[in-house]
Amino acid sequence: MMVFDKHPEYASKRDRSFWVWGYYVSTASNITEEAIKLHIKERRIKESSLL
Questions:
Q1: Residue 36 belongs to some domain of the structure
Q2: What confidence tens digit (pLDDT) does each residue in 1-51 have?
Q3: Domain extent at residue 19
Q4: What is the DSSP letter of 20?
Q5: Is residue 1 part of a domain?
Q6: Residue-wise over 2-13: b if at least 16 C-beta within 10 A, else e?
Q7: For residues 8 and 43, what is the distance between their CA atoms, to the nearest angstrom?
Q8: Tens digits of residue pLDDT in 32-41
Q9: Which residues in the chain belong to E strands, given as ranges?
Q10: Which of 14, 31, 39, 45 meets the CB 3.0–4.6 Å disulfide criterion with 26?
Q11: Could you tell me the end-to-end alpha-carbon distance of the chain, in angstroms, rounded to an integer?
């Protein structure tokens, strides 16, 4: 991934993905519509448990 070329310090992270509160970043070739829907569903469940 280009990010790791520019920022090699992130390449050693555990899963090499960029998940943050409310956002998911991936390339179009690495993610499916089902993965997006699953992520949204899981975030809604987690966020509703915080209320």
A1: yes
A2: 677 788 887 777 666 666 556 666 666 677 888 988 898 899 888 888 876
A3: 15-49
A4: E
A5: no
A6: eeeeeeeeeeee
A7: 29
A8: 889 888 988 9
A9: 18-20, 23-25
A10: 31
A11: 36
**Token pair for 45:** 């469940």
What is the spatial distance between Cα 11 and Cα 24, in angstroms, rounded to a whole number? 17
One-letter amino acid for residue 17 of the chain: S
Q: Give the alpha-carbon dihedral of 40, 28, 30, 20, to 10 degrees.
A: -40
Q: How many domains does the chain have?
A: 1
Tell me the sheet residues that pair with 24: 19
Token reading at 24: 């998911």
3-class state of residue 22 by DSSP? coil
Would 31 be classed as within a structural domain? Answer: yes
